[in-house]
């Protein structure tokens, strides 16, 4: 029942919207605006403008100075740090593997 009522209401609203849209008369719409009218308004608006453009220094701020070169580690120092990190990671992995192996052996002896 609600569906039928809602659909009927939607139909009535749609029909009334179409009826209102059909009431407008668009036959003379092209006569109201002529290109000459638009050009006159544009010319009036531009009458006080100077012919030559002027440069505005405040429009573009100065570019910031380049950042100073930071003195970071050299390529050799970075490579050595990477080697040390890989060595410590490998040692930690070996220790973890040994702990797991010991735990597995303890589990086998308990069974």
Give a short summary of the structure.
The chain is built from four helices and no strands. The chain is mainly α.
Overview of this protein structure:
- This protein has 111 residues and is mainly alpha-helical.
- It has a domain at 75-111.
- The chain is built from four helices and no strands.
- The chain has helices at residues 2-23, 29-32, 35-45, 75-110.
- 0% of the residues are buried.
DSSP strand count: 0
Radius of gyration: 41 Å
Straight-line N-to-C gap: 73 Å
Low-confidence stretches: none
What structural class should be given to the helix and strand makeup?
mainly alpha
Largest sheet geometry = none
Mean pLDDT: 79
Strand percentage lies at under 5%
Overall spatial form: flat
Order of helices and strands: HHHH
Helix content bin: 55-70%
Please, how many helices? 4
Provide the fold topology.
Layout (H helix, E strand, L loop, with lengths): L1 H22 L5 H4 L2 H11 L29 H36 L1
Key features of this structure:
single chain; 111 residues; mainly alpha; 4 helices
């Amino acid at each position: 029942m609600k569906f039928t009522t809602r659909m009927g209401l939607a139909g009535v609203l749609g029909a009334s919207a179409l009826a209102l849209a059909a009431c407008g008369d668009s036959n003379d719409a092209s006569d109201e605006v002529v290109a000459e009218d638009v050009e006159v308004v544009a010319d009036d608006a531009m009458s006080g403008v100077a012919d030559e453009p002027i440069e505005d220094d405040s429009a573009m701020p100065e570019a910031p100075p380049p950042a100073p070169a930071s003195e970071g580690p050299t390529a050799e120092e970075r490579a050595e740090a990477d080697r040390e990190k890989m060595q410590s990671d490998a040692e930690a992995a070996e220790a973890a593997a040994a702990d797991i192996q010991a735990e597995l052996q303890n589990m086998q002896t308990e069974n």
